[in-house]
Amino acid sequence: MADTTQEYQTDTSKWAIAVHRVTSTSVEIWVGSLYTTLIKPKMARVCLLVNGEVIQTKDITTSDWKRPFRNTTQRFVSLQTFDDIQPNTAYTVRFERYISPEEETLPVGWVHLRNAYFNTLPESISSESSFTIGLASCFYPHRDGGRAAEAYQALYERGDDEVKPDITFLTGDQVYLDIGFDSLSRDPDEIRQRIGDDYATNWQLLGGILNRGATWMLPDDHEFWNDYPFHDSLIPQLLALKLKGVRETWTKAAKDAVKNIQRSPRVETFTIGNDLSFCLADLRSYRSKNTFLPHATFKQLTNWAESLTSPGVLVIPQPLIVNINKTERNLLSYKAQYKRLLEALGSSGQNIVVLSGDVHFGRIASCPIGEKGATLTEIISSPMSNLTYLNGIATTGPEFSPEQFPAVDFLPTGWQQQAVTYDKNFAISTKKGFLFSAYPKERTREHFMTIGFKKVDQKLQMTVNAWRIRERDPASYLPLSDFEQAYQVLLTK
Fold first, then answer.
1. Mean confidence (pLDDT) of the chain
2. What pLDDT score does 326 carry?
3. Concatenated DSSP letters for 140-202?
4. The domain boundary residue, chosen from 119, 143, 173
5. What pairs with residue 266 in β-bridges?
6. Which helix (H) or strand (E) covers residue 305, if one does?
7. What CA–CA distance (Å, rounded) separates 397 from 69?
8. Domain match, 196 and 96 both
9. Are 19 and 140 in the same domain?
10. Is 371 found in the same domain as 297?
11. 300 and 372 housed in the same domain
């Protein structure tokens, strides 16, 4: 087998690569294609490089490709895990396929398809450099034109080290499976193919994010349908969900995508040394009438909160500091678990940061939590790309309520209501709409945020910046900052 790599000036954009879970010594690389027009290579490989030198290679044969959706014969993906790598180190990944002699299409050899780039996690938070998280949610492909990925890529490749994302959290609505009247189809194969096509389009547009730094993803309702799992909406595009067969096929295909493409955890935790603890919780996929997580999984979440010995970062698809929503369910719709979660978050006395999305506005809010002097800081980043035309009415500016937290009916025993602090300097700006345009209503500017953690005088400092996706600094051509200055707070006392 020839080991030469052929470089062809061909379109490889229908091939996909994403960096998933990274630790200080391992990484997961997801490759394949979500397009129906490509066929599984008989032989492919994923190469891991440091400073241009290949240090590990994972071969992929025909049997290693998996279908991301059940009951389909198209689209294929493979997950490769690399172990025994070094902490806090920059790596490059190459995804290649082999052209064999019998294919008679191109010269024999390896063809380069896609690259990816990532850093392994550090063993501790440093005083020399920031450990930075990219945060974003809500991506509608129409009118994006690749600008979200372009802005992220620019910051990743040319931004200051203090704001370059090391990892990324996408906190929901990475796809909108319920937009458009094709949602009314009752044919099972059409339902599956529509969902697959939506993912193919969005993963191509988001490729510049997914292949730069490890990405964790959580689903929200539009990974399924509006207000999932409930189907009591009268939205015309969703009327087919009244039919059990449609609902079951749609649910299975949507769950396949969350599992096999987004690779979302139920509850997952990791730490950066003894300095910072993370927990990601899917509070959407497993909802019932009375709970947002099954009992055993919810126990994992509360155990994490109660055992914190350092500041904790909770990543969830919907915010905690909200008002009751009378038209769609939010976390306040689950009184018992919401109240118990607050109790757990306030029990350790450690400061808590909540990272979320969903609501089509961006803001930072904070308030005391619990009885041990801790503070809850909630950071919302939404959207990356706004809905358009008729659907473009689903947007809003920042909300500065509730004024008190928690609501009286949700107070854990012994707690008092606390005033919520909203600094309007750290709310994402809006842009005027025009009635007969693609954006008929005033909307929050498309953006993502970066949240950096660094030791300052032996204390953990958090720095938050917001970046406009569709506006550039004329001098650097980096995304324009939406905040006049960064938001900063100490997380350790």
1. 96
2. 86
3. --TTTTTHHHHHHHHHHHHS-TTTS-SEEEE-S-SS-TT-SGGGG---HHHHHHHHHHHHHHH
4. 119
5. none
6. helix 295-306
7. 37
8. no
9. no
10. yes
11. yes
pTM of this prediction exceeds 0.85: yes
CATH of the domain at 12: 2.60.40.10
Whether 218 shows a pLDDT value over 90: the answer reads: yes
130: alpha, beta or left, given left = phi > 0 and alpha = psi -120 to 50?
A: beta
In a domain, residue 11? The reply is yes
Task: Answer whether 378's CB lies under 8 Å from 365's CB.
Answer: yes
Q: Same domain for 26 and 147?
A: no
* CATH code for the domain of 323: 3.60.21.70
Q: Is the pLDDT of residue 104 over 90?
A: no
Is 124 part of any domain?
Answer: no
In the predicted model, is pLDDT for residue 327 greater than 90?
no
Cα–Cα distance measured from residue 424 to residue 361, given in angstroms and rounded to the nearest whole number: 12
Same-domain pairing of 335 and 416: yes
Tell me the Ramachandran region of residue 100: left when phi exceeds 0, alpha when psi lies from -120 to 50, beta otherwise: beta
pLDDT of 85-102, one tens digit each? 999 999 999 999 998 777
Q: Are residues 346 and 418 in the same domain?
A: yes
How many helical (H) and strand (E) elements, i.e. helices and strands, does the chain have? 6, 26
Report the distance separating Cα 249 and Cα 416, nearest Å.
46
Q: How far is CA 133 from CA 116, 204, 249, 353, 451, in A?
A: 17, 22, 35, 12, 5
pLDDT for the residue 233: 87
Half-sphere exposure of 108 (CA within 13 A, CB side): 6
Name the domain count of the chain: 2
Which pLDDT does position 1 carry in this prediction? 54
Q: Indicate whether 258 and 324 sit together in one domain.
A: yes
**DSSP-based three-state secondary structure for 346:** coil
Among the candidates 119, 150, 176, a domain finishes at 119
**pLDDT exceeds 60 at position 291:** yes
Give me the pLDDT at residue 4, please: 60
Say which residues have a Cβ less than 8 Å from residue 191's Cβ, sequence separation at least 6: 185, 246, 249, 250, 253
The domain in which residue 463 lies consists of: 131-490
Residue 180's pLDDT is 85
| Residue 175 belongs to some domain of the structure | yes
Q: How many other CB atoms are found less than 10 A from the CB of residue 431?
A: 16
Segment 352-392, tens digit of pLDDT: 999 999 999 999 999 999 999 999 999 999 999 999 998 99
Summarised one tens digit per residue, pLDDT across range 378-430 is 999 999 999 999 899 988 899 999 999 999 999 999 999 999 999 999 999 99
